[in-house]
Design goal:
Blueprint lengths: L8 H4 L23 H28 L5 H34 L3
Length: 105
């Protein structure tokens, strides 16, 4: 493993070496990848899908289409855990928002 030598102050003023940092993005460039809104929307839709699957599996168990109780319990557990995670994520986002609003500008 080679360690690069420290650069002199004259070499540090050269910003072309920094272009490789942060994926080569410049200050004014929009961020790469999905937006926060898209990530949050996908997360909520996944939780909703798990909730619907749990409901369907309960209905199928009640009507006799599914006889394996374990499948129903697993679907319900997945839906419960994902919902609790979503609620905790929402709580953290609200806490963060309130903290930012309290900051003096």
């Amino acid at each position: 493993m080679d360690i690069a030598p420290l650069k002199s102050p004259n070499e540090l003023s050269d910003t072309s070496a920094l272009s490789g940092l942060a994926g080569g993005a410049n200050v004014g460039d929009p961020p790469q990848g999905p937006s926060f809104k898209d990530v949050l929307s996908n997360f909520i839709s996944e939780v909703n899908t798990l909730q619907h699957k749990a409901g369907e599996s309960i209905d199928n168990l009640a009507t006799g289409k599914i006889e394996d109780l374990h499948e129903v319990m697993i679907a319900m557990s997945k839906a419960e855990v994902s919902f609790k995670f979503m609620i905790e994520t929402r709580n953290k986002l609200l806490e963060t928002y309130k903290e930012v609003m309290r900051m003096q500008m």
